[in-house]
Amino acid sequence: MTTPGRYHLLLTSCGQPVQHGWWGSEAVARDKFRRWIGEYGSLLEPRVTLTDEETGETLTTWPDEH
């Protein structure tokens, strides 16, 4: 069994999880982050979050919290 990567991407719609994935490379995870916005940005109340699972830090979210 393989362990998931360090960088976790989560897509939610109306607060409910829709899709998620883990990558070992931050660059790849950030590329997926941008792609998911384009592919799933039209969902009802979409939110995409990229987290560094090793540090627990949220690296970026979309849409931005203001």
Task: Summarize the helices and strands and which ones pair or pack.
Layout: E1 7-13, E2 16-23, H1 26-40, E3 46-52, E4 57-62
Antiparallel strand pairs: 1-2, 1-3, 3-4
Please give a handful of descriptors for the protein shown:
alpha+beta, 1 helix, 66 residues
Strand order of the largest sheet: 2-1-3-4
Distance between the termini: 40 Å
Mean pLDDT over the full residue set: 93
Helix content: 10-25%
Which of globular, elongated, flat, extended, rod-shaped describes the shape? Answer: globular
Derived from helix and strand composition plus strand pairing, the structural class reads alpha+beta
Order of helices and strands: EEHEE
The portion of residues forming beta strands comes to 35-45%
Task: List how many beta strands DSSP finds.
Answer: 4
Low-confidence stretches: none
Number of helices: 1
Q: Report on the biggest sheet.
A: 4 strands, antiparallel
